[in-house]
Amino acid sequence: MYNKKVVTRMAPSPTGEFHIGGMRTLLYNWALARHFGGKFLLRIEDTDRTRFVEGATERILSVVRDYGFDWDEGPEVGGPHAPYVQSERLPLYKKYAEELIAADKAYYCFCTAERLEEMREAQKKQGIAQTKYDGHCAHLPETEVQTLLSNNTPHVVRLRVAKGKEITWEDGVLGKVSFVSDEIDDQILLKSDGYPTYHLGVVVDDHEMEVTTVMRGNEWLPSTPKHILLYEAFGWEMPLFAHLPNLKEIGGTKKLSKRHGPVAAVGFLEDGYLPEALVNYLMFLGWNPGTEKEIFSLDEFVKDFTLEKVHKADLVAFDRQKLDWFNAQYIKAKTDTELTQLLFKYAPKGADIALLSKITPLVKERMKKLSEFTDIASFFFSEPSADKTLFSENAHEHLVEAKSVIQEMKLFSTTSIGEVLQKLVGDKKFQARDFFMDMRIAVTGKKISPPLNESMEILGKDVVLARLAHAQK
Ligand code: GLU
Fold it and tell me: How far apart, in whole angstroms, are the C-alpha atoms of residue 247 and residue 24?
């Protein structure tokens, strides 16, 4: 299957934020190229001007980098097939469209929007659900075509699709796939604004850029027979097509939904997921190594990943809890210094880095996402306001006594705090559970917090006394 250097590509459209599913597809393309020592290309498909979003290209490139990926050819890095942005390649598509016209594989169509609308309405009335172009311009006399062109009559270029043909390919993931050409419309290749459609743009560029393997989500499956017809019309060698499963929410039937959390790749980073954890989780959305091993570095994945291991069944469940698990593993694996740097973003503005570095080891084992730090650690940065109903009925006595023994302490360390409070509980015959819960609520404002004695040491004696005094009231 791979007799020449593998060249894969990712070809996002700048129509919004880059989707997490797109990042999975990118990962697979990137890894396959690395696996075979080939090349991975990035190309921006911005030919749909109605859906173009200003700044989207820059955001795509930046999130791809933030997830840890690079590209061998593409925007910003250049390469032998530059430019890698389709709107900068318009003359090329025009040239190829004209080539097809000259060979009678495509034709000019001058139908107006109104005519097409009437045509569709009429077809619907006849009960045709999937309306198709009726071929009105498919056989216009050459002289008429020339007159219309010289009068600058608005027009598109359409592919001449032969009827009654079976279009079959051996998919790199799905195996044999076939469509009948009768289902396929005379595709528009070049639009009246001079931009190519996705179909022409993608085929011309994959050919020009010597892409050997077109790996993309299953939603593109119906486009592939159209592309195959184009390869045939041009007489070009076909790449290997490989269609990957799409993602869905657990229990859902279609795509990911914002109701369950982020769907944009950048949203997961903002939420405090580490790129390494995300990438590790993405590996499993359509592939598995056939062993119990779950933690994979990119290098390990690259070694193992081949198309033969990609799942055929569509719609892989995106398990957000499993992602949390991966993220917690990667948070725990960070050194305290690394983690402190990462948590800075989630601490209050101007937070002291020395203070942060003391807090880090206390929270490291307790976070599924870095963003949880803001809440877990808030009591280190500002006085908490505890809900009165959380305290036990003996809270007043607990806090008064604790305050008085703490006041006497010279050395205020985790160990000495522990000893002094234990002794107090023994001497006064307090219910240990209630006592320590009251202490925890007074100091941290919550029933669940990082280890209490350690936290008190970090806060310091004065702050702790002030909080106990405050809580007493
Ligand atoms: N421009 C298409 C997209 O937005 C590319 C699809 C393909 O990979 O062919 O995803």
Answer: 9
Give the CA-trace dihedral at 76, 77, 83, 84, to 10 degrees: -80
- Supply angle C-alpha 266, 272, 276, rounded to 5: 75
**pLDDT tens, residue by residue, 376-401:** 999 999 999 888 899 999 999 999 99
- Nearest-atom number in ligand 1 for the CA of 45 is 1
Q: Within 67-156, where are the H helices?
A: 90-102, 113-125, 142-150
Residue pointed to by tokens 């017809």: 229
Contact 24, 285 (CB under 8 A): yes
Which is it for strands 7-10 and 39-42: parallel, antiparallel or unpaired?
parallel
- Probe target for ligand 1 pocket from 202, 213, 228, 240, with the most ligand atoms within 8 Å of CB: 202
Please tell me the distance from the alpha carbon of residue 343 to that of residue 347, in angstroms, as a whole number.
6
312-368 per-position pLDDT tens digit: 999 999 999 999 999 999 999 999 999 999 999 999 999 999 999 999 999 999 999
Token pair of 384 as six digits: 């908490």
Round to whole Å and give the CA distance between 354 and 374: 17
Determine the Cα–Cα distance for residues 227 and 238; give it in Å rounded to an integer.
9
Lookup: tokens for 202: 């993608």
- Judged by DSSP in three states, 71 sits in coil
Quote the CA–CA distance of 221 and 241 in Å, as a whole number: 9
Using a cut of 0.90, tell me whether the model's pTM lies above it.
Answer: yes
C-alpha gyration radius of the chain: 31
Q: Which of 336, 323, 318, 317 is nearest to 272 (CA)?
A: 323
Instruction: Select which of 125, 163, 258, 473 is catalytic.
Output: 258
Preceding amide of 225 cis, omega within 30:
no
Unique residue bearing structure tokens 């250049």? 78
Distance CA 191, CA 294 (A): 47
> Which residue of 198, 209, 221 sits with most ligand 1 atoms within 8 Å of its CB, as the best mutation to test the pocket?
198
Give the span between the Cα atoms of 315 and 280, in whole angstroms. 19
Q: Could you tell me if the CB of 11 is within 6 A of ligand 1?
A: yes
Q: 178 pairs with which residues across the strands? A: 168
Q: Is 473 tagged catalytic?
A: no
